[in-house]
Amino acid sequence: MQNAYISSLIFAVLTSLSVATTAAPSIKAEAPAPITAQMANVEQSTKVNLNTADAEVLRRDLFGIGAAKAKAIIAYRDSNGPFTAVDELLEVKGIGKALLEKNRDRLAIN
């Protein structure tokens, strides 16, 4: 009796699955543009001008720059005049080569 019940149950499940897979329409959706590619375009177009940016812009738009480093950049700019090259950012306390290279494509001197 149990064998007949289990066999019937398995048959019903397999039949339901086969009907469900053949009855479901095949929908092919267009692949949306990758979000990372869209964000890369936005990031590349946003350059931070070291000579005009305020602390909030520096903190928000640059990797690894918090409030303290942003204030240090502005303090350096105020005491030494405008930046003449992006590499001059290495003179600011707390800014090293790795941090500069991470942000080099985002920086501008105008």
UniProtKB/TrEMBL annotation:
GO terms for biological process: protein secretion by the type II secretion system. InterPro entries: Competence_ComEA_HhH, Endo/Exo/Phosphatase_dom_1, RuvA_2-like. GO terms for cellular component: type II protein secretion system complex. It comes from the Bacteria. The keyword Signal applies. Keywords: Signal. Residues 1-23 form the signal peptide. Pfam families: HHH_3. NCBIfam families: competence protein ComEA helix-hairpin-helix repeat region. This is Competence protein ComEA. It comes from Pseudomonas fluorescens ICMP 11288. The lineage of its organism: Bacteria, Pseudomonadati, Pseudomonadota, Gammaproteobacteria, Pseudomonadales.
